[in-house]
Amino acid sequence: MGEVILDVKDLHTYFFNRWGTVKAVDGVSFSLRQGETLGIVGESGCGKTMTALSLLRLIPRPAARIVEGQIILDGEDLVEKTDREMRDIRGRKISMILQDPQTSLNPVFTIGNQLVEALRTHRHGSHKSMVQHAMEALRSVRVAAPERRLDDFPHQMSGGMKQRIIGAIAMSCEPKVIIADEPTTALDVTIQLQYLRLLKEIQAETGLGIIFITHDFGIVARMCDRVAVMYAGRIVEDADVRDLFNNPTHPYTQALMAAVPQMERTDRLFAIEGQPPALFDLPVGCRFAPRCLHVHDRCLSGYPDSFPVSGGHRASCWLADTNGGGSEVQERSIGEPA
Question: Regarding beta strands 226-231 and 234-240, do their DSSP bridges make them parallel or antiparallel, or are they unpaired?
Answer without folding.
Answer: antiparallel
